[in-house]
Design a protein that fits this description.
With 144 residues, the protein is mainly alpha-helical. The chain folds into three domains: 1-40; 45-82, no CATH class; 95-144, no CATH class. Helix content is 42%, strand content 6%. Strands 1-2 form a two-stranded antiparallel sheet.
Length: 144
């Protein structure tokens, strides 16, 4: 079961206290990574980048969507013209970026070489926002 959108800790099949704690730690780490990615990828998601305005100033009243968010939802695009995604479809889009180490069984003495896909500009920007500059730079160096 994916750890997405909400903290789904149960059900789990662990009985030993140490394993239950380890499971909880992994769930919390997954939740933190998702929270961080939603924050940095907010411009590319169907989520309000400027939340917090409430009807009549009441904190218990439903929040109003910002004009920028309404425009993003209407056009299904960012101000830069990129497509807006749900978190799940954004991860699916990034799932096409790969880097594989290839070893030749016939020549085990040779070091592995790397084959990878080149991220398109929106994917490159998303990886940069997520802190993947080092991996993207390494990929470019390997391709040179």
């Amino acid at each position: 079961m994916p750890k997405s959108l909400d903290l789904r800790i149960r059900p789990f099949d662990h009985r030993a206290p140490r394993r239950v704690r380890a499971h909880m730690l992994l769930c919390m780490l997954a939740y933190y990574v998702e929270w961080h990615l939603r924050e940095v990828w907010a411009p590319y998601l169907f989520e309000d980048e400027h939340p917090g305005r409430h009807q009549g100033g009441s904190p218990v009243a439903p929040a109003l969507r910002s004009p920028e968010d309404l425009e993003k939802a209407r056009t299904k695009g960012t101000a830069a013209g990129d497509t807006v995604h749900s978190f799940r479809t954004l991860l699916t889009t990034l799932g096409t970026v790969a880097r594989n180490a290839v070893r030749l069984p016939a020549h085990p003495e040779l070091p592995p070489f790397h084959l990878g896909t080149t991220p398109d500009p929106p994917q490159h920007e998303l990886l940069r926002l997520a802190g993947g500059e080092v991996a993207a730079a390494r990929r470019q160096k390997d391709q040179a």
